[in-house]
Amino acid sequence: MEEVLVFQHDPFEDLGFFAEVLEKERANHRIIRLFHGEMPNEEWHQVAALIILGGPMGVEEEEKFPFLRWEKRIIRAALDESVPLLGICLGAQLIAATLGAPVYEGAVREIGWSPITITPHGQVDSLLGYLPESATVFQWHSRGYELPPGAVCLASSTYYKIQAFRLRKLTYGLQFHLEVTPQMIERWIVERSQDLARTPYVCAEKIKADTRNYSQALKYYGERFLTEFVRRADRAKGAANMRLGLRKYEKGTDHR
Prior knowledge:
By secondary structure, this protein is α/β, with parallel strands linked by helices. The protein has one domain (3-242): Rossmann fold, CATH 3.40.50. The protein contains seven helices and nine strands; from the N terminus they run E-H-E-E-H-E-H-E-H-E-E-E-E-H-H-H. Strands 2-1-3-4-9-8-7-5-6 form a nine-stranded mixed sheet. Strand 1, helix 1 and strand 2 form a beta-alpha-beta unit. Helix 2 packs across helix 3 (90-98) and helix 5 (182-191) packs across helix 7.
């Protein structure tokens, strides 16, 4: 398949387990490290999909992180060109903001393992429908967003009404993390210790214990989700190329 672009905002929030899934699916992918100033110009007909990872910054912090302004323009272009999109945590917030949905500071920080509820729309979704109605996933965020116009809510939690959404067939936003590995979580506990210090109801040792209990199930959820996303993106790209070829053929045979 053509190239999958990955936008990475922070050195500690990488593809995690998703890298294995992309390799298994033989999906060529290229990581754009925005925190290093990488901002390439792309020909969208050569891009199979765009994955936007998480990060500690807010969608409004454009002065401090100038790449956010550029990134929103890229997301808008990708939406206009019907490029399959997957946003994780900050990535989902950026997609929501680009679509005009408010992004807000939540009353509660969700850090660690907690349950989400899969909505009726989510239960019949081909990417999330295999999750149990109440699924325990990994979270690390303090912001949420309203449902973007035209989107459907796929999952919610006690403190955040929108935990996942889908727009059209292949734009997905996940507030939670399906990509994290136990090693990533250990690193976040160290590197994001200030978040934990500001959140007295969250215990690092509890996160570690829960990771031992829930990480294998999360890996299964993540593999099923991304595998289906990549395969559907590949099929969508093939269909688009076929339509483009047909238009060129019709143009070339039009002798009126």
